[in-house]
Amino acid sequence: MIDRIYRTAVLSVAGNKTVEELVRTRGWSIAQRFVAGDELADAVRAVEELEREGVYGILDLLGEMVTSEEEANTFAEKILAILDALEGKPYPKYVSIKLSQIGQDLPSPQGENLGMVNARRILARARQIGAFVRLDMEDHPRTDQTLAEFRTLVGEFGAQTVGTVLQSYLYRTEGDLASLADLAPNLRIVKGAYLEPESVAMTNKVDVDAAYRRLVYAHLKAGHPTAIATHDEHIIDDVKRFVLAHGIARSQFEFQMLYGIRRDLQRQLAREGYTVRAYIPYGRDWYAYFSRRIAERPANVMFVLRGMLKG
């Protein structure tokens, strides 16, 4: 409950326009701890720096919940540009997108939402160059639609090209995991970073962590590709023991973490022979993402305040 109170307070303050303007004006130098830069070239450099440390990258152009066809198509073109930039690179090509970013809420002349039209364009290009695309999960009202569209896209492009995300703090998620089993999907398991009502999401960290372990273990035991997205060393150690006890190959799973957070742990796991990826966001629309990172840990607030006082 304390975790929820803290998150609610931070995200409520972050929603204040005066606070947003202050952070946008003075906080970019601090946000760069979590965001690779404004431009695609900045993000590609970040991927290549991590590659030298044995850690792979996941590129994510920041932005969500667009309201115009022009904006959605612009985002889609920029994501296609990521794939163009990755073509021919000697390392794994991995991109994360939000369907709301490319027109999920907008109609299209083809008779379905613009997000699906643009997703097909992106996935066709990804398949052409051997890239993988992760459909990020957003706030809970979008879960049903996102999972339905994920199912359609897996049917068209295959689980080797497209995956999605499940959030352990939602009460519904174990049912969602079971409903996707026939796809043998590539799933990223996260705890959840949106401020959700208590009617749909757990508020106690212990409960969220327990649900997280159940989801990861169930997906691993089913033999499906699993991205374990956490910085929690207790969970990481438990996963190591679990896969060893059940004879699960390291090629079936990987650890995923956020850019700029626990880089030491990322390098350590890579040295131990585990696949590790860092989620590398970039772009000018960084404020919402930055706010969610601050809401995750009280220490992050102190980091921001110290940096702004210096500025």
From TrEMBL:
Q: Which GO terms describe its molecular function?
A: nucleotide binding; proline dehydrogenase activity
What region holds the Proline dehydrogenase domain?
44-304
Q: What is the enzyme's class at the highest EC level? A: oxidoreductase
Binding of FAD occurs at: M137, Q167, K191, G192, A193, K205, T230, H231
Reaction catalysis annotation: L-proline + a quinone = (S)-1-pyrroline-5-carboxylate + a quinol + H(+)
Which InterPro entries does the record match to this protein?
Answer: FAD-linked_oxidoreductase-like (IPR029041), PRODH_bac_arc (IPR008219), Proline_DH_dom (IPR002872), Proline_oxidase (IPR015659)
What Enzyme Commission number(s) appear in the record?
Answer: 1.5.5.2
Question: Would you tell me the protein name for this molecule?
Answer: proline dehydrogenase
Q: Which organism is it from?
A: Deinococcus peraridilitoris (strain DSM 19664 / LMG 22246 / CIP 109416 / KR-200)
